[in-house]
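Contributing new records

If you add data, match the layout below exactly. Sequence lines come first and carry their own label; structure lines follow with theirs. Keep one chain per record. Anything else will be rejected by the validation script.
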Amino acid sequence: MPNKFRIVFIGDVCGKPGRKILKNGVPLLRAFLQPDLVIANGENSAGGLGITRATADEMFACGLDLLTGGNHIWDKREGLDLIEHDMRIVRPGNYPDGVPGRGSILLSHHKAPCLIVNVMGRVFMEPVVDNPFTYMSKVIKEYDAKVIFVDFHAEASAEKQAMGFFLDGHVSAVLGTHTHVPTADFRILKKGTAYQTDVGMTGSLDSVIGMRSEPVLNRFLTGMYHKFEVAGDNPILDCNLIDVDINTGKALYTRAFRFYNETIEEQLNQCASEIP
């Protein structure tokens, strides 16, 4: 097999249950899968909405290399300075000029330079962001890197799929975030880009996308505002593994996983022989 660069990307970390399973899961993922880079979407890590220095430090201490974001990354005001100054955090790059932070980062990894890009969709999302397709066209021309990973934070499946085909052959992977529900369409597209519409979530499975079901149901039933609360039962970790050919930047292998907190090591043992 050609020289490969292995990335593990973890779906949206939702509150304390998500951070707790990261503490157990990331060291095991590193031990069994031997990734070169472990990334997680951290925009929901602080109480289900936003990010803070404390939650970021806790996640990095688990063994993460980078955090990506989305529309909720701004929801904790105390996190704005963190987003601006911590180079390990990448927020959607197609926000207007002047917002804190950066939308991409080029890592000087010993195997190969690796470009990490975070971009946000516009369908059913914030209307303020620039066109994500034209934004991506500009970004991939700015950097000299074969290994390019894109976290596309978007609501509409069609917009995510369109981005996958738009970037096919130009980047190594396009993985979707935001909906917290993993899709079964992980695959390598015809021109060599690994793709999944949504990686899923790291948090409570017994929830409505990470939140306690009762307040959500009350809001649907009555139309009245009810404060959402992070659910805590039955934590899961959704992630995707991608192997990239260092020489071409094409994906060699991709696979989606769902791990349950008490059985992560057992699950990894079972699938070890199936992973190249």
